[in-house]
Design a protein that fits this description.
Blueprint: E1 5-11, E2 20-25, E3 28-34, E4 40-44, E5 58-60, E6 63-65, E7 72-73, E8 79-81, E9 103-106, E10 109-114, E11 136-144, H1 148-155, H2 161-164, E12 182-185, E13 188-191, E14 215-219, E15 223-227, E16 232-242, E17 245-254, H3 260-285, H4 306-320
Antiparallel strand pairs: 1-10, 2-3, 3-4, 5-6, 6-7, 7-8, 9-10, 11-17, 12-13, 13-14, 14-15, 15-16, 16-17
The structure holds FE2/S2 (inorganic) cluster (FES) and fe (ii) ion (FE2).
Length: 321
């Protein structure tokens, strides 16, 4: 994992008011809860008393109550009450505090700060220039037995299109890979497929290719967008579970008609398409070895793997920072 980043870990709708959700993200067992006022909290899913999962407890007003012996914690993990000691107790109970994590919400996404809380930036990664409130979206999720780096690389891979997606987005047998042009600007990595049918020509260098209107974008650490056109996009956030598992949240954003109910209907069809394509990718990506990709590896990359090389380089740089 890259430290000191906001990771998109769940859709906001996954944690309802007055509910607790236990999830594993970034190798951590987390209990996320929303109090009656809708405010979100996140603590380690392990009680300081005798280790029970706090996510099995309940929300009591502003507090999270452990299901085992009723210890209560505030959204910052501070122990507020120990029923067995009685209401009259004035003893210092700070040693029962549990670790809390910083979470924020925007764009219908729960972001988790993985790093030192003092270093937390205010900027939550998203494609703000491309997607605004005029869009509606549909969403699906799926679990892949893959490290999130592999899932991301797959979404930047233009070489796989005519093989993995031969009957969908990669039809036409365009096996020859021109470029692709790849750029990294304003913290967004962008590339676009420029593949062609092989009639014996030499593939164009990336310098002779350009970023096309339909293009692929990625923001570190884990959000990707297919900019299909100015009215439709696919966004995926790859929530890292652990070193071998990822949950993908795939959204189809649409403002084709600017009538929200109609756009929602269209987005529903987009979701069906997303599912078909996602299944094609998943079948292959989960087989990749080793599970985690790396800049220095034994893999023998191709010219067309340029976006993947760039992803690995930047990832390495951010990890070393
Ligand atoms: S284990 Fe949580 S209160 Fe005892
Ligand atoms: Fe694919």
């Amino acid at each position: 994992m890259i430290l000191n980043q906001w990771y998109a870990i769940l859709p906001s709708t996954a944690v309802k008011t007055h509910h607790i959700v236990g999830v594993k993200r970034l190798n951590l067992d987390l209990a996320l809860f929303r109090n009656d006022n809708g405010k979100l909290g996140c603590v380690i899913d392990q009680c300081s008393h005798r280790g029970a999962a706090l996510s099995k407890g309940k929300v009591k007003g502003d507090h999270l109550q452990c299901p085992f012996h009723g210890l209560e914690f505030d959204p910052k993990g501070k122990c507020m009450f120990i029923p067995a000691n009685g209401k009259a107790s004035t003893a210092d109970i700070s040693r029962y505090n549990v670790k809390h994590y910083l979470v924020k919400e925007a764009n219908g996404i729960i972001y988790f700060w993985y790093g030192d809380i003092e270093n937390a930036s205010n900027k939550l990664p998203f494609f703000y220039d491309s997607i605004d409130d005029s869009y509606v979206y549909s969403e699906m999720e799926d679990h892949w037995h893959s490290h999130y780096s592999r899932c991301i690389e797959n979404q930047l891979d233009v070489v796989h299109l005519p093989f993995v997606h031969h009957n969908t987005i990669g039809r036409g047998h365009k096996t020859l890979v021109n470029g692709p042009m790849t750029q990294y600007e304003d913290e967004i990595l962008t590339t676009s497929a420029n593949n062609a049918v092989d009639v014996g020509q030499t593939p164009k260098s990336h310098l002779d290719c350009e970023i096309r209107d339909t293009n692929l974008n990625f923001i570190f650490p884990n959000i990707w967008m297919n900019h299909i056109n100015h009215r439709m996009k696919v966004v995926i956030f790859f929530a890292p579970v652990d070193d071998e598992n990822t949950v993908l949240y795939i959204r189809f954003y649409c403002k084709l008609t600017n009538i929200k109910s109609l756009d929602r209907f269209i987005a529903g069809f987009g979701k069906i398409g997303n599912r078909i394509i996602e299944r094609q990718d998943k079948r292959i990506v989960i087989t990749q070895k080793p599970k985690i990709s790396a800049l220095k590896s034994k893999e023998k990359l191709l010219k067309g793997d340029r976006p993947i090389i760039m992803y690995r380089r930047i990832r390495e740089e951010l990890k070393n920072r």
